[in-house]
Design brief:
This is PAS domain-containing protein. With 188 residues, the protein is an alpha+beta fold. The chain folds into two domains: 2-93, no CATH class; 106-187, no CATH class. It is 44% helix and 22% strand. It has helices at 2-6, 15-18, 21-26, 28-37, 64-67, 71-93, 96-102, 129-137, 154-168; strands spanning 12-14, 42-51, 54-62, 114-118, 124-127, 141-143, 149-151, 183-187. A three-stranded antiparallel beta sheet has the order 1-2-3. A hairpin with a 5-residue loop joins strand 6 (141-143) and strand 7. The chain is elongated and about 65 Å long.
C-alpha cells in the first residue's frame, strides 16, 4: 500500500517490480492483507484518486509463481478500468446516490453530463435533462422512427453503431425486446 500512496494517480504499480521480495514480506501490507489470503505474494494496483481527504485504489493480489509475467496484462486492464471507476466515485461523491434514490427516479437523471440509455438496436429508452435538451436542439442527432437515435453525421452514426455493437457483445439483432440489457452512453 505505501507504494500506491507514493504513486501518482492513474499510474499502475506492480509491487514485485517496485519492491524487493524480502522487503515485501516485512511490510504491513503483506502481513495484514496478502499473508491471510494464502499464496498471494504479489500485487498490482492503481491509485484512482487521492484528493480532498479521499483515497481510492484498485488492487489485484496473486501468487507470483503463477503470474507468468502477467503484469503487463494486469496493468493494461487496470488502466482501462480506472477512468470508469474514478468517474463512478466522483458521481457518488456529489451525493448523487442519495438524491436519486430518495426521489425514486433513475440514476441517469442525476448525471450532469448528457446521458442516454439506449436499447441494443439504438432506440432511446431514457434521457436525462441535458440529453433531452441536446435532442430538442437537433444539432448532432435526433430521434427517428420508433425513437431510434438518428445521427446527422454519417461518421458519428457509424461510430455510435460500432460502440453499441461492442457494448452489446454481438447481441442478436432480430430480437425486438431489449429486456434488461441496456447500455449507458455518456455524450460529451
Amino acid at each position: 500500500m505505501p507504494l500506491l500512496l507514493r504513486s501518482s494517480t492513474m499510474t499502475t504499480i506492480c509491487a514485485e517490480h517496485e519492491l524487493p521480495y524480502a522487503e515485501l514480506l516485512k511490510s504491513e501490507f503483506y502481513q495484514d492483507w496478502l499473508r491471510p489470503i494464502g499464496e498471494a505474494d504479489g500485487s498490482s494496483g492503481i491509485k484512482l484518486l487521492d484528493s480532498g481527504g479521499r483515497f481510492g485504489a484498485l488492487t489485484f493480489s496473486y501468487d507470483v509463481r503463477r503470474a507468468d509475467g502477467n503484469c503487463p496484462d494486469i496493468a493494461h486492464m487496470l488502466q482501462a478500468l480506472a477512468p470508469r471507476i474514478e468517474r463512478s466515485l466522483n458521481i457518488s461523491r456529489l451525493g448523487v446516490g442519495a438524491s436519486w434514490r430518495a426521489e425514486s427516479s433513475a440514476l441517469v437523471h442525476a448525471i450532469a453530463d448528457s446521458a442516454l440509455i439506449v436499447s441494443w438496436d439504438g432506440r432511446l429508452l431514457e434521457a436525462n435533462m441535458p440529453a433531452s435538451d441536446l435532442i430538442e436542439s437537433g444539432g448532432a442527432f435526433g430521434l427517428g422512427a420508433a425513437d431510434r437515435i438518428r445521427w446527422k453525421d454519417a461518421r458519428m452514426a457509424a461510430r455510435f453503431q460500432a460502440a453499441l455493437r461492442a457494448a452489446c457483445l454481438g447481441r442478436p439483432s432480430r430480437r425486438t425486446d431489449c429486456g434488461s440489457r441496456r447500455w449507458l452512453a455518456t455524450l460529451r
